[in-house]
Design goal:
With about 140 residues, this protein is mainly alpha-helical. About 80% of the residues lie in helices and about 0% in strands. The protein has 9 helices and no strands. The protein is globular.
Length: about 140
C-alpha cells in the first residue's frame, strides 16, 4: 500500500488534481441530474446496452474517484477507473466522428478527452503531490 500512496513534494500537482477531480465530479453529477442529455439518454444514443445501468455505474465512479482525486486520497488507484472511462469514451464517441470527418476534426473534437486522459495518466505516474492526503499518510507511516 505504501507504493500506492508514495508521492513527491511537488506543490503544482494540485492543479492537475483539481482539474481532473472537479471535471469528473461534475460530469458524474450531471449523469444523474441531467439523465437525458448526459446520462442514460446519451448512453442509449451512443449505442450502449443497458444505458441506465452503465450511466449510473460510470457516474458513480466519476463522483467517487473525482472526489478522491480532489482530496488526494488514493490518487493513483482513483485515476485507474477514470483512465478506463476516458478510453471507452474516446473509442465509443469519436470513432464515428473520425470515419465521417477525418483525423484533424477528430483531434479538434476530442481535445478535452485527450487532456483528461493524459492528466489522469500523469496522476497515475506522479501521485497526489505535496498537498494530498496520500502525502500525509505516507509521511506519518514513515515517522
Amino acid at each position: 500500500m505504501k507504493s500506492v500512496l508514495q508521492t513527491d513534494n511537488d506543490t503544482t500537482t494540485i492543479i492537475i488534481r483539481l482539474i481532473v477531480g472537479v471535471i469528473f465530479l461534475s460530469e458524474g453529477v450531471q449523469k444523474f441530474i441531467l439523465p437525458l442529455e448526459r446520462g442514460a439518454g446519451r448512453f442509449e444514443k451512443i449505442g450502449f446496452y443497458y444505458p441506465e445501468f452503465f450511466s449510473s455505474l460510470v457516474g458513480s465512479f466519476e463522483i467517487v474517484c473525482g472526489t478522491l482525486v480532489i482530496i488526494g486520497l488514493l490518487t493513483r488507484l482513483a485515476v485507474i477507473p477514470l483512465i478506463y472511462i476516458m478510453l471507452i469514451a474516446l473509442s465509443t464517441t469519436k470513432y464515428k466522428l473520425f470515419m465521417a470527418t477525418g483525423f484533424w476534426n477528430l483531434l479538434h473534437e476530442s481535445r478535452t478527452d485527450w487532456a483528461m486522459l493524459l492528466s489522469s495518466i500523469f496522476l497515475l505516474i506522479k501521485g497526489g503531490g505535496k498537498w494530498s492526503i496520500d502525502k500525509n499518510i505516507n509521511e506519518t507511516s514513515i515517522n
